Amino acid sequence: MAIQLKTPFQKQDIEFLRSGDRVLISGVIYTARDAAHKRIVEAILNGKEAPMEIEGQVIYFAGPSPARPGKPVGSIGPTTSYRMDPYSPLLIEKGLRGMIGKGNRTEAVKAAMKKFGCVYFGATGGAGATIAKSILELEIIAYEDLGPEAVRRLVVIDFPAVVINDMHGGDLYESAKSSVREI
Known about the structure:
With 183 residues, the chain is an alpha/beta fold. 26% of the residues lie in helices and 26% in strands.
């Protein structure tokens, strides 16, 4: 049974989550990949506003393909998360509560998640067309010149994900490795 979550998140909305939990996220999430992350962090470091509110938000590491007629988005699968790792600790410190991607995160990112209260969700790579079915609306809100990497505001319903790293230090990938070693 999946846990229903509604964005934006307060810290108490996600503190009960544990690595391995299946979730369905509804509300607003944002897309941003490495080029957009770099610009967002540079803006913050230069005392400027980020293109969206960071506090309580979820960022999906994805760049969608063009939409078919009548659809808000084409395929929108996750991209590899480690490319955002140089930028994620600052965003987490600023109140980012969730990230969605695929692959491992660095120790610095996991430490920031634990210190400030953030969860890393995994989305299934190769399932971008299925994930797109959970997206009701899409709007480019910043850095349109980045094409697929522009920041987008998505309205989602029942976006499927799995908790990879919880805010207590749980790591689904590490526990899976341990389970395999025991066999």
